[in-house]
Specification:
Layout lengths: L2 E5 L4 E5 L5 E5 L7 E2 L1 H9 L5 E4 L3 H6 L6 E2 L5 H4 L11 E4 L4 H12 L5 E4 L2 H8 L8
Parallel strand pairs: 4-8, 5-6, 5-7, 7-8
Antiparallel strand pairs: 1-2, 2-3
Amino acid sequence: MDCLAVQKNLGFQHLSHHSPHLKLIAMSTPLPIEIDCATVKRRLDANDGFFFVDCREASEYETCKIAGATLLPMSELAARVAELEPHKDQEIIIHCHHGGRSLRVASWLRNNGFEKARSMAGGIDQWSLEIDPSVPRY
């Protein structure tokens, strides 16, 4: 029987087989659930391989949008989650208006196996203030 001791703060696991020899196995550290607008912008500009989701409603999306984001309203998420399956192992960054809905969506996705789901802090409103003032505020 294996004895497993985990030291999460160090990011390593020690696995022993009832012997004096320990094997060290690296653990992946979870990504922070929030990411700031400036980092998202840098990563978009660099084509840094993440899937960008706008979880606002269609009427909000029509008012303003961030280029590269795919509309998937929070109200439709449970019914349409299969659309995200091809991106399950990829980082998924979600934004909304101010960051509240996207944080709930990222949390829900993480609880449903999308371990790399993240919320863009401040939403599109913060994006307009920090990154692109041509994006209308509402």
